[in-house]
Specification:
Layout (H helix, E strand, L loop, with lengths): L9 E4 L15 H11 L3 E5 L23 E5 L10 E5 L1 H4 L15 H16 L2 H18 L5 E7 L2 E6 L9 H10 L10
Parallel strand pairs: 1-2, 2-3
Antiparallel strand pairs: 3-4, 5-6
């Protein structure tokens, strides 16, 4: 039996865990988190730094379950890779509690950064990159799943946010960077996460 805890004000969740190797939640997980947050009057915050801005075939990964978080944290793709920027989006009922100078950072309000973000998001939408991520991601994942190799444990992901988990064998160190270099030689840009 769950009960309200006055010490909990928010739940932070990655809709798809990136650094862990594209770890997918079970279907309905985000909806269940949203329902609990609503029930207990707790903010739901999604970390869309890796999974957001079209990478999964939707603007945000939480959109796959039609979940609307109270706060979205984003970065990386926000400037199209041109500048290091990040952002937070929230409803006015949340942001109105932030008075002048109550939040900020070293690069807060950088005009060039904001113009770059605006152009990057405009390109994502106008050039159909989000839909393209969904289409090409489905094709990419389907083709990866056709590879029958004793090295592949699982292929998982959404859109172009796709990962391959390599089987670990007793006494053999798995080096994901080795596989990333092999993919690169064949024109596929990827990176390893941990092992």
């Amino acid at each position: 039996m769950l009960k309200a805890d006055p010490n909990i004000c928010a739940v932070f969740v990655e809709p798809i865990q990136g650094e862990g190797g594209i770890v997918m939640p079970e279907d309905g997980y985000l909806k269940a988190v949203r329902a609990l947050c609503t029930q207990y009057n707790v903010l739901m915050v999604t970390d869309e730094i890796q999974s957001g801005l079209g990478r999964t075939g939707y603007m945000f990964a939480a959109d796959h379950e039609e979940v609307r978080p109270d706060i979205i944290v984003m970065g990386k793709a926000l400037s199209g890779g041109m500048l290091p920027v990040s952002g937070v989006v929230a409803d006015e009922w949340i942001t109105k509690h932030m008075g002048p100078l109550s939040h900020g950072n070293t690069f807060c309000g950088n005009a060039l950064g904001m113009a770059t973000c605006h152009a990057a998001i405009q390109s994502l939408v106008e050039e159909g990159m989000i839909e393209n991520s969904k289409t090409l991601g489905h094709l990419f994942k389907t083709e990866l799943e056709k590879i029958k190799s004793p090295l592949i444990k699982e292929v998982r992901g959404r859109g172009l946010f796709v990962g391959i988990e390599i089987k670990k064998e007793e006494g053999i160190k798995v080096d994901g960077n080795h596989f990333a270099k092999m993919f690169f030689k064949h024109g596929v840009l990827t990176k390893a996460t941990h092992d």
